[in-house]
Specification:
It is a single chain. By secondary structure, the protein is mainly beta. The chain has one domain. Helices cover 0% and strands 56% of the residues. The protein has no helices and 6 strands. The N and C termini lie far apart (37 Å).
Length: 71
């Protein structure tokens, strides 16, 4: 069961990745794990610095960049 601290992203090869934020004693860590659950290509988040797009590469690494940089 997914919680608000998780999401599923799909990489360019079609592999889905569970992205999970773990918070313990003030330390936040992000983990990625391959999954069979369907995911989305990217998500958009709003931060104090503006909007960012989050994607994942074929190795499970998170990629973020400002939406304004997409041109």
């Amino acid at each position: 069961m997914r919680t608000p601290e998780t999401l599923i992203l799909r990489d360019i090869s079609g592999q889905n990745w569970l992205v999970r934020i773990y918070h313990d004693e003030g330390i936040r860590q992000i983990y990625t794990t391959k999954t069979d659950e369907p995911g989305q290509d990217s998500i958009k988040i709003k931060t104090l610095s503006g909007y960012f797009k989050i994607k994942i590469n074929n190795f499970g690494q998170i990629i973020t960049y400002p939406i304004d940089s997409l041109g």
